[in-house]
Write a structure and sequence with these properties.
Length: 608
């Protein structure tokens, strides 16, 4: 059997990916909900690729109102829409790949949904990965996770009359009520002839297995040892998962009697599918070297004259849809204002290809500047010669560097930048572990003997903070010496002198918006680079700084996202229509002495 490269597909308002193969047994992947879907996105993609390599055509997709699909999470009848999406996905897979059997594979809430839809889909096999046995069980866990999550002091309660807010996603009361009616222990018929259940040790799927067996299904059970690792972070989810290996082997077992092996799979998908929205059209793009990068171009039906496009970069290691679907909402909001955007996945993240020689899921990688420039190339090919780069967390560092490297970037939006320099890349966990707050946050506690007892012997977190503060002080001295040297000789700025880089952008006429959540740990990096509260940057022309009260680091709070969207609107209005003549070759290049901030335009490579 053969498999081919994956391809984006659209059906019934749903966005998805087809992973072609030559077999006549196809697989529809039913994703988990919310933050779990973001954490497992890369692993889910790898799972689909492994199934296709085993000869099984695969369709993975975004439920209506999630990911890149049409709709909103607050729309009515979400449960019906999600189940309808699974039915539509199975029908589309049958039509596009010519499969004669369809298996459903569901992870977490996706397992519950897959089991609920299986009989109507006519599924021949069903794989449930750490499934919720009922909607009530899902709601209990979601509510507990939401209540236990750390929230900004001024944020509204996570559970209230408007629903359950968790990881930037909201489950409405209507959707919750619909889910309460789902209970697999009460089904009157087996969901499929063959069922595989892989569950975590503390899971409650054993009763499901007994119920399905009593209804005549052939049920196999096995442990899901990788569950905690898979769900804990994007970086961990990028690793191989033994449960996925077991599921792939089970699904690739001999086809049912009477079903012969097939030749290469067939496809009928248009080469450039388009998703039509009210006032906008979205189309998936493959671009960059070897077409290895992926993004969604969102263009307004009625474009505003001569307005720059917006380049939306990954937030940390989160896929291009953004935390809480923020990038999708921003793109469609911008389209309503007549502004085009491209939300893309940098190399090794989301749906873009892996980068040769490095692990998936890394952030703060210097070669991501090349990826972002490829995004600018894609925008220019679509008729958008100038752009505003927008990045949150690690995406902010990439946005800064692409602005320094490429004069087509005429505006810059940095949200909670954890670092301002790029290197060989770190995991999200390493970046979080190395973050240090402003010195003022620690000084009051340095008079406490207990703090010193923790620092001096073995207190790992306290010693990390002390080390971070001392390194920050040494860096400021080194950068200051470089500025003194440059003042005398005209050269010699420190390689990581961020103020010098921002001054170069200001001199080029780039408008910059820098946003920090009030009290965010990244304010420590701002202090290290620009002084208390970023004072030196605040005095710089062309740069506008804002604080968001009641906001977390990733802007998961809905009110904070709305305030940020308004700030982005204001910046775009300030830029207006007069600056879109900025194209490659115009304006000064990156400033001398910025080292890792300097990119060679011929190769796209950055010095160490």
């Amino acid at each position: 059997m053969t498999s081919g490269p994956s391809m984006p597909v659209l059906f019934d308002g749903c966005f998805g990916w087809l992973h072609p193969a030559g077999g006549r047994r196809g697989v529809v992947l039913c994703a988990p909900y919310g933050g779990e879907a973001l954490a497992t996105h890369r692993a889910w993609r790898r799972f689909a690729e492994s199934l296709a390599a085993a000869g099984l055509p695969v369709l993975r997709f975004d439920y209506p109102g999630t990911g890149d699909s049409v709709g909103e999470e607050g729309d009515p009848a979400r449960l019906d829409a999600w189940l309808g999406g699974i039915r539509a996905a199975a029908a589309h897979l049958r039509a596009i790949a010519g499969v004669e059997e369809v298996a459903l594979v569901g992870l977490r809430l996706g397992g519950l949904l897959a089991a609920a839809a299986a009989r109507e889909v006519g599924a021949d096999a069903l794989v449930l990965l750490s499934p919720f046995p009922s909607g009530r069980a899902f709601l209990q866990e979601l509510r507990a996770v939401a209540l236990l999550a750390e929230r900004p002091a001024d944020a509204p309660p996570a559970v209230g009359p408007e629903g359950i807010d968790s990881a930037g996603f909201r489950l409405t009361p209507e959707t919750a009520e619909s889910l309460r009616a789902l209970d697999l222990a009460r089904v009157a018929e087996a969901p499929a002839r063959r069922v595989l259940i892989l569950d975590r040790p503390e899971g409650r799927a054993a009763a499901l297995a007994e119920r399905f067996r009593a209804l005549g299904a052939n049920v196999e059970e096995a442990p899901f040892p990788d569950h905690a690792r898979l769900m804990s972070s994007v970086q961990h989810a990028a690793l191989d998962c033994s449960a996925f290996v077991r599921a792939a082997a089970w699904l690739a077992q001999e086809l049912a009697p009477g079903v012969a092996p097939a030749g290469p799979g067939r496809t009928m998908e248009a080469p450039s599918p388009r998703l039509r929205l009210p006032g906008a059209v979205e189309r998936p793009l493959r671009f960059g070297p070897g077409a290895g990068l992926f993004g969604i171009l969102c263009e307004p039906v009625a474009a505003a004259a001569e307005r720059p496009a917006v380049l939306l970069l990954n937030s940390g290691a989160t896929p291009h849809s953004g935390t809480g679907r923020m990038s999708v909402r921003l793109a469609r909001r911008l389209a309503a204002r007549g502004i085009a955007s491209l939300r893309l996945d940098l190399g090794g993240l989301g749906d873009s290809a892996s980068k040769p020689g490095r692990r998936d899921g890394l952030i703060y990688c210097r070669d991501m500047v090349e990826d972002a420039q490829a995004g600018l190339d894609a925008l220019e090919a679509a008729g958008h010669a100038a752009a505003v780069a927008v990045g949150l967390c690690a995406g902010a560092a990439v946005a800064l560097h692409v602005a320094l490297a490429d004069p087509r970037t005429i505006g810059l939006v940095l949200v909670n930048p954890g670092r301002f320099v790029l290197g060989d890349g770190v995991t999200q966990e390493e970046a979080i572990g190395s973050a240090v707050k402003p010195a003022a946050a620690y000084l009051p506690r340095l008079t406490e003997p207990a703090v010193w007892r923790a620092i001096l012997p073995q207190g790992r977190r306290a010693s990390r903070v002390a080390r971070g503060l001392s390194e920050r002080a040494a860096r400021r001295l080194r950068i200051g010496a470089g500025r003194l040297r440059a003042g005398l000789t005209g050269r010699g700025y420190a390689r990581d002198d961020v103020l010098h880089a921002f001054q170069a952008l200001t001199d080029r006429g780039v408008r910059t918006l820098m946003v920090h959540s009030a009290g965010d740990v990244t304010l420590g990096e701002l202090e290290a680079q620009a002084g208390a509260d970023g004072g030196r940057l605040r005095r710089m022309g062309g740069l506008w700084m804002e604080r968001l009260a009641g906001a977390d680091h990733s802007l998961m709070e809905r009110a904070a996202r709305e305030r940020f969207a308004g700030l982005l609107d204001d910046l775009l209005d300030r830029i207006g229509t007069g600056a879109t003549g900025a194209v490659r070759g115009k304006g000064p290049g990156p400033p001398e002495g910025t080292g890792a901030l300097r990119v060679n335009h011929a190769t796209g490579n950055s010095p160490a």
